[in-house]
Amino acid sequence: MPSMAFNHRRGLNPYLSPYTILDCGDIPVSPFDNALALRQMSEAFLELGSRSPALAQGKTPKPKLLTLGGDHSVALPALRALNKIHGGPVAVLHFDAHLDTWNPAKYTSAWESAQSDYNHGSMFWIASNEGLILNGSSAHAGLRTRLTGQSWADYVDDDRQGFLRISSDDIDDMGTRGIIDAIIGRIGLETPTYLSIDIDVIDPGLCPGTGTPEPGGWTSRELIRIIRGLEDLNVVGADIVEVAPAYDGTGEQTALTAAQLGFEIMTNWVGRSMGRMESGIESKTGNKEEL
């Protein structure tokens, strides 16, 4: 309920703010045809992201889309749409146990096809090769994946795509504040950024409802604290993905964590925009901006 959503850590209720939050519903996609599903999602993201928000005179007069999934491959159509909407590549802040920058050829199959190249472990590789990601301004966080083959080739390919890697273990030495500072130092506060959260960044003991669990992850509290510390980033779009209800616990803890992360992202968007309006950076009209 909107009346019960005051975020005490930020001192605001995102649903009762000067901004409009809309539920855009589901994007209908084919479960049988990867190419068609990609086209359907790409067209939908472009249509939704191109609509004029109520507040059209501010510094960021474009809607911000938060996508809930589902397969992580939804990031590719989102990045294609953002490239057209913002007129160029954006940075990617990627919370995940896995790199997801793998060359599709490393996903071996007895029946290789062009459609199988588009999957939840290669979408950032495709996006990078399409020029959709800012090389040198992007970051992974929470990594603990095993690599392919017998060498560091996966990291070499990831380096070529311009990502900073922050491992899950780094939080022991850096703390949440150190993780936040490293991300901001890499991306900056004005760079248009796509925030992508794979729920498997959290330890499966806390969030079991995902398809590719990896032990040794962060706690939900740690991730929420990090997200809260990144309010000043210029996040232009976001997703929370790989939530698989069939694998969740009886208390639905994975779904609850994903919902809280969505609430924190929306709070960040509203808080950043309100702060900039109050300081004179954003438009001070009485209209509402859509999120």
What does this protein look like?
The protein has 291 residues and is α/β, with parallel strands linked by helices. It is 33% helix and 11% strand. It has seven helices and six strands, in the order H-E-H-E-H-E-H-E-H-E-H-E-H. It has a six-stranded parallel beta sheet with strand order 1-6-5-2-3-4, sandwiched between helices. Helix 3 (123-129) links the parallel strand 2 and strand 3. Helix 1 runs parallel beside helix 2 (75-86). It is globular. The two termini are 17 Å apart. Mean pLDDT is 89; it is low at 283-289.
Brief sketch in words of this structure:
With 291 residues, the protein is α/β, with parallel strands linked by helices.
Helices, strands, pairings?
Layout: H1 34-50, E1 65-68, H2 75-86, E2 91-95, H3 123-129, E3 138-143, H4 153-160, E4 163-167, H5 170-187, E5 193-198, H6 220-228, E6 235-241, H7 253-278
Parallel strand pairs: 1-6, 2-3, 2-5, 3-4, 5-6
Helix pairs in contact: 1-2, 2-3, 5-6, 6-7
Tally of strands: 6
User: Which runs of at least 5 residues are low in confidence (pLDDT < 50)?
Assistant: 283-289
Return Rg in Å.
18 Å
Number of H- or I-type helical stretches: 7
Distance from first to last alpha carbon? 17 Å
Portion in helices: 25-40%
Mean pLDDT: 89
Question: β content, as a range?
Answer: 5-15%
Largest sheet: 6 strands, parallel
